């Protein structure tokens, strides 16, 4: 997949998160999509990977869904477009995204505060 196509899919995913549109999120996820969360034992989250478009969409809404005090931005994560989620300029999540064929196949959701310090806005 080209970088442009990957970027487009991530932007659409971010927009669906902001709207809290579970149906649109699920439509962007592959049927076998997998989401892995890293809360580091400090932030509640699933201990095992979450699988399937509907289940991953529900997880995303629960962990990233647009609250009024939340900024969700498309930013470079591991050299590709991903998401940074901040509240009051402090990162609360960073999401790496893997795509194939125009859909999201995997999400790596970092929630561990010990790993997010470099993502805070100053």
Automatic annotation (TrEMBL):
List the InterPro entries hit by this protein, alphabetically. Answer: ECF_Sigma-70_Domain (IPR052704), NTF2-like_dom_sf (IPR032710)
Q: Which domain of life is it from?
A: Bacteria
SUPFAM superfamilies given for it?
A: NTF2-like (SSF54427)
> What PANTHER family does this protein's entry cite?
ECF RNA POLYMERASE SIGMA FACTOR SIGI-RELATED, SIGMA 19 FACTOR
The identity of this protein, by name, is Siderophore-interacting protein
């Amino acid at each position: 997949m080209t970088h442009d196509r990957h970027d487009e899919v991530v932007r659409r995913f971010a927009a669906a998160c902001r709207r809290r549109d579970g149906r649109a999120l699920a439509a962007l996820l592959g049927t076998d999509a997998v989401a892995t969360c890293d809360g580091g034992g400090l932030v509640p989250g699933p201990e095992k990977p979450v699988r399937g478009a509907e289940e991953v969409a529900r997880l995303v809404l629960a962990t990233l869904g647009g609250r009024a005090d939340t900024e969700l931005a498309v930013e470079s994560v591991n050299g590709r477009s991903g998401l940074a989620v901040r509240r009051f300029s402090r990162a609360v999540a960073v999401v790496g995204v893997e795509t194939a064929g125009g859909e999201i196949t995997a999400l790596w959701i970092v929630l561990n505060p010990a790993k997010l310090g470099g993502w805070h806005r100053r």
